[in-house]
Amino acid sequence: MAQTILVAGSGFAGLWGALAAARVLDEQQATQVDVVLVSPEPRLGMRPRLHEADPTAWSTDILPHLQAAGVRYVQGFVSRIHRQDGYVEVADANGQLVSLAYDRLLLAAGSAMYRPAVPGLARHAHSIDQPADAAALDAHLQTLAAQPDTPARHTVVVVGAGFTGIELACELPARLRALLPGTTPRIVLVEQAGEVGPALGAGPRPVIEQALDSLGIERELGQTVAALDGGGVVLADGSRIAASTVIWTGGMRATGLAGQVAARPDALGRAPVGNDLRVYGAPHIFAAGDAAVARTDDDGHQTLMACQHALVTGRYAGHNAARDLLGLATEPYRQPAYVTCLDLGGWGAVFTQGWQRDVGTAGAEAKALKMQINTQWIYPPAPRRDLLLAAAHPDKAFAG
């Protein structure tokens, strides 16, 4: 009877986890083990690109890749994990529940944007959290030209000056000028911290500030949004910004499934995992990407909810899930190199190295690197079995 490695999620971690498991099985000639990937759609959403224009283009059909590697795809949403009994409940497109058994499970169901209980947020705020959200924002922006020519029409409030908020804010001036010729767009970044990019540290901040100034992007620092309505936002100090477009870029929270497999999820809801990415207390469950928190090195740094960590943890988790099922030794995950490349729109970009985020290059040179990352490095190779299995080795992961 065949055994099953079940992968929940088709993002960067899920795709590469499934391919890595298939690579081990191919290497070991383990024909009695199936790799099954479950997700709502067989698509890899290019989340790092959702701040760009034309967001409907930023996803890739991965069904040919899965088929080429011998991974079976099941369309549906994993709604519950029964870790003691070794099966998951999957809701199909019609909402019907089916059960899928597993011998090893790889949880790679990602994360979603945190939406606090701010009055009006659910109804009036846009986001670029998922491809559908980014597409809805783009459709909204396309309608602005038909609205009355008021200051609010060409004002956009971006709430949150973290990685996503900065990239989006820097992209918007050019997008709005194209949509609203002859106007001067007003972009306002609202951030509760006293500086932009609080989690990015002091290293790249002068470059970021220079770019924001050059692009004419206003900042409301040390501020929070108290309420939203159809005409703009009210800040905590009582001031109001009239805007036809408000975009929320709050922090991320891991899939709720992580709380079903981890006894003590971290503050972001992620499942803590050991050196081989096995969930503590769940010997048959591995986790990767945004669903997991792991040590990246011997200095105590931990994975972030970022593409570069999803690409690598996915490969290691799939590799180790397959080896563990076959009775082989697993391999410790380590990813000591850490870099960031922040897109700054028409100004360029900034590339940093190390956890202290020392600036390596900025402007046009960094922009060229960002374009290479976003258009080449994060995409899977052509759907050929030999290429996919070779690229799925943990040592082959993109670490930038």
Automatic annotation (TrEMBL):
Any one GO MF annotation of this record: NAD(P)H dehydrogenase (quinone) activity
Cofactor(s) for this UniProt protein: FAD
Alphabetical UniProt keywords: FAD, Flavoprotein, Oxidoreductase
Protein family membership: Belongs to the NADH dehydrogenase family.
Domain FAD/NAD(P)-binding: 5-311
A single BP term in Gene Ontology: aerobic electron transport chain
Protein name (Swiss-Prot/TrEMBL): NAD(P)/FAD-dependent oxidoreductase
The keyword ATP-binding is annotated on this UniProt entry: no
Keyword Oxidoreductase on entry: yes
Pfam families in UniProt: Pyr_redox_2 (PF07992)
